[in-house]
Specification:
Length: 217
């Protein structure tokens, strides 16, 4: 299981330091929640901050763009050093296939994030372009929300669609309300990456929290 701590709940003036501490605790990736105040009500940070985080760690950084116009930002986040760029089909982007292809042209992994009410069928028509599908287990915009109980079923469906389209290499990740108590259910459903925020970054022992997401005591 790949563990990607989300830095959303960390001190935004010390995100590079927080990312480095998560890497020391055993994180495999770093998850960056980029919000524009339009697609979601919250405004977080831009590519400059992402660059500071990327320079602070040796592990991949995923820029999760919860923004209304992702096509105007992907080049900036690629240049900042993000290894993966994840976008939403619910944004104003009219040419999703083209955008995912462009992310790959920039040398990044291409991810697609699905809001809770978005059908997994969105994956089918761009499956060949995807390196990651991020299933949102909460509505995007705020940390600390309650995990949506139907998420494992959606994960299972996403995994099935990817495999039916011949894409067996893409990660299926889950973001929102992920803890040691539901990580096993998500793994059984087909998730192989978990993005977890306050459960890890707010823990007195992040290494132990990361281990628990992998099913270890």
């Amino acid at each position: 299981m790949v563990i990607a701590p989300s830095l959303l709940g960390c001190d935004h003036g010390r995100l590079a330091e927080a990312a480095a501490s998560m890497e020391r605790a055993g994180a495999d990736w770093i998850h960056l929640d980029v919000m524009d105040g339009v697609f979601v009500p919250v405004l977080t940070f831009g590519a400059g901050t992402a660059g500071s985080v990327c320079r602070a760690v040796s592990i991949p950084v995923d820029a999760h763009l919860m923004v209304e116009r992702p096509s105007v930002l992907v080049e900036q986040f690629a240049a900042a050093g993000c290894r993966c760029i994840t976008v939403h089909p619910e944004s104003s982007e009219k040419h999703l296939d083209r955008l995912l292809a462009r992310i790959r042209e920039l040398g990044c992994l291409a991810g697609l994030a699905l809001n809770p009410a978005t059908s997994p069928e969105s994956v089918r028509w761009v499956a060949s372009r995807l390196d990651l599908v991020l299933v949102m287990a909460v509505n995007p915009g705020y940390g600390g929300q309650e995990f949506i109980a139907s998420t494992p079923g959606k994960v299972r469906e996403v995994r099935g669609i990817l495999e039916s389209c011949g894409n067996r290499s893409a990660f299926v990740s889950v973001d929102g309300g992920v803890t040691g108590s539901n990580a096993g259910l998500l793994a059984e459903a087909g998730a192989d990456m978990l993005a977890s925020g306050t459960y890890v970054t707010g823990s007195a022992d992040p290494a132990r929290a990361i281990a628990s997401l992998r099913g270890r005591p």
